[in-house]
Amino acid sequence: MKIGDTVNGYRLITRPCNEDAGKSVWAFAERDGTEYFIKRFLEPKRPQAGSGASARSRELRLAECRDFERRHSEVGEALRQRRSDSGSGNLVVPLHFFVAGSTYYKVTEKVVVADADPTSFSAKEKLVLLRTLALSVRVLHGIGIVHGDLKPTNVLIERRPDATAFHPAKLIDFDDSYLTGRPPAPGVVGGDQLFGAPELLRYMREDPGVPAGALTVAGDMFSVGLLAHYYLTRRLPDHDSEFGVPGEAVAAGAALAFDERLPAATRDLLGALTSREPAARPSIDAFLAAMDDARLCELAGSPLPATPAASSRPSGSRLHMPSFEAPPPGRSAAEAVRPPDGAPRRSRLKINLGGGDHP
Hints:
The chain is α+β, with helices and mostly antiparallel strands. It has helices at residues 55-81, 123-142, 198-204, 218-233, 246-251, 264-273, 284-290; strands at 6-7, 10-12, 24-31, 34-41, 96-100, 103-109, 145-146, 155-157, 169-171, 178-179, 239-240, 319-320, 323-325, 336-338.
């Protein structure tokens, strides 16, 4: 896969890259005068005739590939059927999912992103960002699909021709999506630990107390709560440093500490969204209803220090703030996420895309 190669009619026009892509590589491609984004999955590999593998090994690999194909095809088809729904215009849905030889590929539209830092937006601009993101999530949840990997790198901020227009959020990367209550096996399920819900983290570790059916759209709502806090404050909620990521802290019953500059109503909403029990989290419709009020996106007072003062910490708690690397020039639409020292950077077998002018 290199510049000039043609795969199923798509001619690569940029050098393939695996930055923020885990076990995949991506590039831009052209077909019939239109530019697209194309991703090549490095695994699974579909076994070919005469490969020399044993019959048992071949059957196991074929079973993995069939499950991979089924999940991607059913999610992609469900999304394409809802392209006319309100809010679906900001979903960057798969246009073409195919296999060439032993390798799987996915194609989506190319998105031109804004050179803007969303955390510097006004309250009204942040409200538009959060509402357009939530409208996309509502489309997914309305058809029973869990996105499975909501995080800043999977939210692009689209550049509009009109300089005075608000920039909407474009939701990308459905490679880890699944039907609610029907996730892949623990060793296959994706998602970023930093934004993962407590039940997802426990399921990944094969906790017998978390069956597959416990992974529902409510897991996305936990991530929405963390995303909202980040877009409003450029921080994730503080949590006890004994735990690597917020979801671990919540799973253990520890509280998250939300930025005190936020209105009390906003902190209450975020607290509910990041509840330990999935059933206690507000639905995406409830979140949208709350986001009718731009005052929820306002900050009061001067910025907080990088880490909370010791006097502001709950007794006996060691709060820790996961940090974010500033995106390099030209790549502000996709934040580079850096987990806390000692925390695993990713909890998934593959991480698909994040950054640059597109996913």
